[in-house]
Inverse folding.
């Protein structure tokens, strides 16, 4: 665990995770987190007072933000629209991997209020943003962090998907292979013989190990997830994602995210539903990697493989299916029928409402693994670098 003393850079920045989107708060952040017990005080007969704790303590988070450039102020205006818009069911809900928040095992934050101060040239533009923890209903609350494959204070991963029955023996084989290569297990080497499938960004390599163990030919898997998706499509072993796909998913299916912001795609294995009905995907992904403190090299846009203390970070974990973006296609387990044959790709909508054809996928250069979440603007967030005592790629 980091502290403000050994990793001040991690404590001075605050990034909100909104599904697959990263929303860094511009400027320098001072984060205050407090816990409060939810109690019910009753006055029974006599002079005594009965105090009952209704549920686990909840957190209140205050972010004091200081900005001093026009670019920071403009970036903040975009965030204000997100806060104001909220969701269909209430206030905007986020997660975050900030050390002060994760240290208190807070899983969700919902926006409460925002207050700006008059601009002062001597100290910059200051605002105060308040969030409150949003807990699940008691009947749906699950323990977090109780297994090797379950880490995410930031994304709410839990191991309960293991109870979801597979639709077929082939699907069960895929899930078994995925879990055998999950977080904390020995990591196979990638094709280059140097890196391994636990390192952030090697999603296609991880899926190749899982898929071949379950019965798919290794030749279907390319250097990137986009190449793998194209080869499954060419072999007629996948179908386009549609509005009906989620309700018809087979456990053990491979889920492809061709619109991943990395331009290299993303892929993972559908392992079933969480106890609250959320479909979960196990993969090598940067949501898990960054939730565990993994650092992105700002110069290359790739995972360094390490946290700020120089400790290697395992990027394998379960994330909600839509927490990785919107899928573009799905491949059922080996030997299972493909319901919908590949047809013409639908045009992509533009801001004006017109449509333009999607570009034809092209082969990407090797050694450019998927980055399953977008990176923040380089001017908006200082990304710490690993300790000089460690050279992750040496």
């Amino acid at each position: 665990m980091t502290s403000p003393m050994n990793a001040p850079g991690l404590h001075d920045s605050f990034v909100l995770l909104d599904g697959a989107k990263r929303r860094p708060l511009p400027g320098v952040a001072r984060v205050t987190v407090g816990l409060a017990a939810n109690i019910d005080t009753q006055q029974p007969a006599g002079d005594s007072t009965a105090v009952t704790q209704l549920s686990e303590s909840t957190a209140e988070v205050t972010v004091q933000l200081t900005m001093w450039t026009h670019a920071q102020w403009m970036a903040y205006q975009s965030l204000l629209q997100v806060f104001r818009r909220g969701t269909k069911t209430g206030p905007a809900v986020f997660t975050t991997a900030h050390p002060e928040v994760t240290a208190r095992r807070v899983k969700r934050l919902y926006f409460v209020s925002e207050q700006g101060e008059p601009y002062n040239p001597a100290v910059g533009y200051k605002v105060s943003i308040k969030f409150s923890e949003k807990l699940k209903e008691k009947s749906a609350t699950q323990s977090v962090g109780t297994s090797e494959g379950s880490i995410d204070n930031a994304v709410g991963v839990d191991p309960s998907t293991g109870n979801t029955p597979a639709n077929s023996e082939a699907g069960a084989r895929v899930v078994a292979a995925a879990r055998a290569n999950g977080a904390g297990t020995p990591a196979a080497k990638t094709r280059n013989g140097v890196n391994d499938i636990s390192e952030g960004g090697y999603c296609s390599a991880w899926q190749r190990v899982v898929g071949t163990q379950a019965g798919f030919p290794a030749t279907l898997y390319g250097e990137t997830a986009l190449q793998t998706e194209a080869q499954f499509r060419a072999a007629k072993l996948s179908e386009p994602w549609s509005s009906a796909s989620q309700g018809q998913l087979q456990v053990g299916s491979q889920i492809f995210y061709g619109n991943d912001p990395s331009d290299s795609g993303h892929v993972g294995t559908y392992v079933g539903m969480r106890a609250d009905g959320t479909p979960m995907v196990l993969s090598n992904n940067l949501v898990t990697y960054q939730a565990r403190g993994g650092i992105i090299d700002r110069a290359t846009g790739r995972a360094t493989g390490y946290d700020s203390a120089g400790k290697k970070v395992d990027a394998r974990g379960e994330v909600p299916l839509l927490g990785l973006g919107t899928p573009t296609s799905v491949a059922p387990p080996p030997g299972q029928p493909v319901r919908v044959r590949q047809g013409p790709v639908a045009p992509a909508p533009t801001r004006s409402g017109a449509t333009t054809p999607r570009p034809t996928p092209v082969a990407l250069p090797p050694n450019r693994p998927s980055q399953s979440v977008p990176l923040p603007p380089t001017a908006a967030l200082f990304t710490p670098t690993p300790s000089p005592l460690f050279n992750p790629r040496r």
